[in-house]
Amino acid sequence: MRKITQELKDKIIAEYKTGASKNQLSIKYDVSVGFVYNLCKDVEQNLKELVKTEVAIKTELAKLNEKEVKAFHEVVEERTKHLIYFQNIALANQRKANELLEMADTIKDVEAHSRITARNKETVLGKEANTIINNTNAQQNQTKLTIVRKDLKDE
User: Fold this and answer.
1) Are 16 and 45 contacting, i.e. CB atoms less than 8 angstroms apart?
2) Which of 52, 89, 137, 150 fits a 20 to 30 Å CA distance from 106?
3) Which candidate, 18, 38, 44, places its Cα nearest to that of 26?
4) At what angle do helices 66-102 and 107-125 cross, to 10 degrees?
5) In what helix (H) or strand (E) does residue 58 lie, and over which residues does it extend?
6) Distance between CA atoms of residues 64 and 68, nearest Å
7) Is 59 helix (H, G, I), strand (E, B) or coil?
8) Contact between residue 142 and residue 134 where contact means Cβ atoms under 8 Å apart
C-alpha cells in the first residue's frame, strides 16, 4: 500500500474524470479499491467523451502526411488563440458594463447594458440559431379589407 497524499488523491480524481475505472486506478496507484470508491463517490466522469474525441482526432491524423498534420496543428492553435482572446475581452467588457450598470440613471443606460451583455454572450457562447416555424398545413382564410376614402364636400 502506498502512502496517501493530497497529490495522489488529486491524480486519482483527475484520472477518474477521464473515464478510468475505479479498479484500474486502485491497481495503478497501489491503493485499495474501497479508498478509490470513497474518493470518487460523487465525482462525475465529465472528461470521458473529450478523451474519446481526442483519440479519434489523433487516429485520423496518423493517416495524414507530416505537412498536413503540421498545417492542422497550426490552424487549430491559431483559432484557439483567437477564441480565447475574444472570450477574455468579452468577459472584461462584461465586468466593466456591470460596474457601469451600478451607476445607471436612465433606462437608456440599462438598455445599453442589455445590448452589451447580449453581444458578450454571443462571443463567449456562440450565436443561437434562429428558428422560424412556418405552419403550411394551417387553413389560411384571409379577410380582405378595402378602405375607400370619400372626399368631404362643402355644403
Assistant:
1) yes
2) 89
3) 38
4) 160
5) helix 48-62
6) 6
7) helix
8) no
What are the tens digits of pLDDT across the range 91-144?
A: 888 888 888 888 888 888 888 888 888 888 887 777 766 655 555 555 556 666
pLDDT at residue number 143: 66
User: What is the distance between the alpha carbons of residues 21 and 29, in angstroms, rounded to a whole number?
Assistant: 12
| Residue located via cell numbers 405552419 | 135
DSSP secondary structure of 78-126 = HHHHHHHHHHHHHHHHHHHHHHHHHT--SHHHHHHHHHHHHHHHHHHH-
Nine-digit cell at 151? 372626399
User: pTM of the full predicted structure?
Assistant: 0.52
Query: Cell match 416555424: residue?
Result: 133
- 126-140: string of b/e by CB count within 10 Å (b at 16+)? eeeeeeeeeeeeeee
